[in-house]
Every structure is written in C-alpha cells, then in structure tokens.
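Hi all, a correction to my earlier message: I attached the wrong file for Luciferase-like monooxygenase. Here's the right sequence:
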Amino acid sequence: MKFLAITLIAHGPDPLTGETRSTTERFRDVVDTAVLAEELGFDGFGVGERHERPFISSSPPVVLSHIAARTSRIRLFTAVTTLSLLDPVRAYEDYATLDHLSGGRLELIIGKGNGSAQARLFHVTSEDQWDRNREAYELFRRLWREDRVTWEGRFRPSLTDAETWPRPLQRPIRVWHGSATSKESVELAAHYGDPLFSANVTNPIEPYAELVDHYRERWAHHGHDPADALVGAGSAGFYAARTSQEAIATYRPIYDARVALFRRSGVEPVFHSLEDAIERGSILVGSPQQIIDKVLRYHERLGHEVMHISADADGLTRAQHRAALELFQSAVAPVLRKEIPSRPFPAVPVVPQSAGATRQEGAVTRRSTVTHQNTAVTNQSAGTRQSTVTSTGAPA
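and the right structure:
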C-alpha cells in the first residue's frame, strides 16, 4: 500500500485554543508539512481545491509549485482539481508547467468539487456541473496528449488547430477521478481506464464500497482488464498514539469541537461521538495495531492500494502532530506495505539535456574544481606559514 498526506488548507480558529494563524503562516505550515512528509517517507502529498470559506486552497498549482521547489522525491497530487469550475485550457497550462517544475512528479485527482458558494462564484449549476466536469476532462485529456487540438463543446469557446504551451513532461500524466456519492465520476473513470479515488470520509463504508463495486463493473464493461483497475481511498481524520487510551483522550476534545461546529452550522453529523466514528467511519484514531486492523478491514471491502490521511494538525500541537506522523511511518505503514501489495507509481521521466546545458554544466564543474583547487592551495600555504610561525615563534 502507498500513502498520501492531503490537505484542503482549511483556515480558521484552532478547535481547542480558538487562535487563528495568519494566512501566510497557514501556507507556510502546509509547505513545511509537505517537506516533513517527504522526510518521513510518505509516497505523496496532496493539496485540495476549494473556492469558498473556510478554505484558502483556491490555487493548488501555485502551492504545489512551492512544495516542488522544497522537495525532490515525494509525488505531488491535486485533491481534487475542480474541472467543472475551470477553463480546461488554462488548467492544462498551469499543470503542464507544474509538471516540468516538479520534474514529472505530478498526479491529478479531478472532480466536480463541493460547495454551493463556489458553484455560484463560477456560475455553475447543479444541472450542468457533471456535464461541465465531463466536457472539461475530455478536452484536458486531449490537450495533454495532442500537440494540436480542434474541438467544440458547450461551455467554452471552440478550438481550431490550437496549440497549448508548454508541452508536458509526462506523456501522459496519470489522472485519478475523485468519487464521493455519485456514479458520474465512476463512469468517467471506468470509460477512460483511469484510477478511482474514493472520498470515504463522511459516511460509513457501504455507499463508498457500492461505488467501487460499480467502478469495477463498468471498468470491465468498457473492455478493460479487471486486473488493471486501481482504487485509492481516503480517511476522515488521523491521530496515532502508543495506546488507544492515549489516542482517544487526546483526540476527543478535537472531535467534540468539530461536532459542535457542524451543529452550529445547521449540519447534523453522521457520527455523534468519537467512539461511533471509530466504530463505523473511516477515521483513524488509536494505537498502531488498531489502525492497521481497521485499514485491513476497509481493504477487504474496497480493494484499495493507495490511501490518504490528513496532513493537518487540526487541533493537535506541533509536537503531537509530528509524533503521530512519525508513529504512522514507523509502526503502521511498514506493516500495511507488506500486507497490501501495491503497484509502483509512474516512473519519473528522464529530463532530456541539451548540448548547451551539458556544456554549461561542464563549465560550472570546471569552475568549481578550479575554485576548490585554488582554495586548497591557499589553505596549504596558510597552513605552511602557520606551521613556521608555530615552530620558530616568528614568521620565516
């Protein structure tokens, strides 16, 4: 199994202290957590996309570009790219650029997105959101694969022999389809032979498992090899401690604050207590063995090879958050990697080097060598003079 840490970059008061970090600090927290995720051995880091409060994740390619500059190995995910709201040409340009800046470490999870405020912001309706999502993906997919595109649709101006730049590094890029409650994303993924990422957050497992079963059925219907179907799944929260008692005691006030917030907002939570959420939901709170057992139970029903946990502290102190992530990677992930085999992520492409770049690299290397040699000679001369002073008591 492979593991992603994912954030939607919620920005609001700490559920326990009530303190709100500045927007700048919140973005820095996200980038620092991504760097930590790479250090600890997570396979991927994902940034969601929302265009309404309390989220500040309206520009995932910008955030992921900064993370790409601070990391070198971890794969970068969108979670999700809301194609139903975006111009697919502009989205292509952003992500093709990020593909190069990340050295080909980018993967996309796409979806229609959630939230009525952001739908109004982009003049998207419940009647056309799925049509927009499908049309945008079909065009985005062609733009990534074809150097020139002629196309006509309903929701953006037509294209005639259009070129888009830059051309991507990965040919093609892997695109997952995020699925929460609707069969539309499932059908789109199965039709194109793309992997499915189940949200697996709000409800018990049954509705998500039904959609995964439907995906596998539609996958075969469209003529794909059933063995090639690939599924990922999320989780509703995370805190690991050495004992279940410690984990529950630490996380209970955070969960209770979340439930209270839902109720103040007029939303009745599906799980009314932390124990109920642990028993019936996907939240991962407990000892390492409890978390391992729960993921294995979910895998029996979903057959997923990739899972995500929350990258956010969400009320934990910095020390508690780091300790939980470290414990996950040291005591949980190794067992699940062994118990649940997973296919490798796409290989990072080899970046072609032009002759000019090779000559420039050689010149830099030669300059570095000369500088090093000159420094060594200078240091040696200084050392000789110092030795003479030391042995005679006066300069030679």
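Sorry for the mix-up. The first strand starts at residue 2 and ends at 7.
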